[in-house]
Amino acid sequence: MKRKKWLRILPAALCAGLLTAAVGVSAYRAWEQPPVTAAPAPTAGPARPSPAPSAAVSSAPIQMRQTWPAGRKEGVYTILLVGNDDGNYNTDTIMLGRLDTKEHRLDFVSIPRDTLVNWDWEIRKINAVYWSYQLQGEAGIDRLKEQVRGLTGFEPDCYAVVDINVVAEAVDLLGGVDFDVPMDLNYDDDSQDLHIHIAAGPQHLDGSQAMGVCRYRSGYLNGDLGRIDMQHQFLSACAEQFIRLGSIPNLPKLTELLSQNMDTDLTAANIAFFLRQALLCRGEEIHFYTVPNTDDTIRGLSYTVVELADWLTLLNDCFNPYTEPITAEDLEIVYRQDGGYRCTAELKGAWYFYVPSPAYTGPETAGEEPESAPAPEPEPAPDFSLPVFTFPPLPSPDAAPDSLEWLTAAEK
């Protein structure tokens, strides 16, 4: 009797459970919301002359020709991801992502921290932009977005500035990540309280170890580019793992963690939208790239210089959210050509690229006369007089030829 009663109750319970789940999923999908896509940027005004070199950061905005494309690709969203992971407030992780909800594809491109940007400051690396303006009381993310717009030709739809500690908490919340560490990672820095010791091989990483993998950079032959490649491998492993599971553990908690611990213009509903859309992508449709570049040294500093032609190809193939192609005229990029530096727009502070002679001490201050070097003292005139030699007296003519007196006289 009890068994028959249970058999009658079970289908009703299953239906109620499925209905509750369906209502929950429907409510979640109704709550989540895609971000608002970026509006076309205003047309740039007439070009202004380059400002005089200064130790202060210029507040002049990016100036480039901006004939914005009219058509936007449907279901395509772009996001700027920024991470501070060096302990010195530099944004050493800068990534541009593009989500295509129609093709269920995710593309990310890393912008190396030493990328040369077109601004008139002593250090022209993109990782110095954010905090250089923050320390002056300005919105660093706005200035960084301007530089990214110069590199890409469009402004990202949204942004998120993430502290590396939040990444560690997120990994712990997700239950850890399986990752095949490609080499032994050993690094200690007491000044940052950073200690990384992870053996090579398959590992189940917790949040602290995952943070160490992302921050490690001392053992790569190609420096920061090696760190970027490691980050790409780790993120690919994360994506494949959670897509394979078909869900993200603790999704509501993860959404709350990210929304409350990031500097972002995304709402919790926007974050939930991105997370669910990511689960709809297949592992082979998630791609990571690095801006094509070459290494260079300018004024004793290491830079990565964008390879313009290769970058334009990658940009239009994978990241352009508009229907019209992006051209060099839409960008503001400093690049190398014919042994010199050129810019797709006005080159700011061209003096910076002057190769100094050994006596060069920097640009001269307007209105000051350079100090003249003292005239060298004249060398003494050469002495062409002949040396004076002293000879012995001649022998006496009175001495006999067979006598030795002449010799005695000569010796006196």
Describe the structure.
The chain has 412 residues and is α+β, with helices and mostly antiparallel strands. The chain has a domain at 66-353: LCP protein (Aminopeptidase). It is built from 10 helices and 14 strands. The protein has helices at 2-31, 129-134, 140-152, 164-173, 207-215, 224-245, 251-260, 268-279, 308-318, 405-411; strands at 76-84, 93-100, 105-110, 158-163, 177-181, 185-189, 194-198, 201-205, 262-264, 286-290, 293-298, 301-306, 334-337, 340-343. Helix 4 (164-173) crosses helix 5, helix 4 (164-173) packs antiparallel against helix 7 and helix 7 packs across helix 8. It is globular. The termini are far apart. The model is unreliable at 10-28, 41-67, 384-392 and 406-412 (pLDDT under 50).
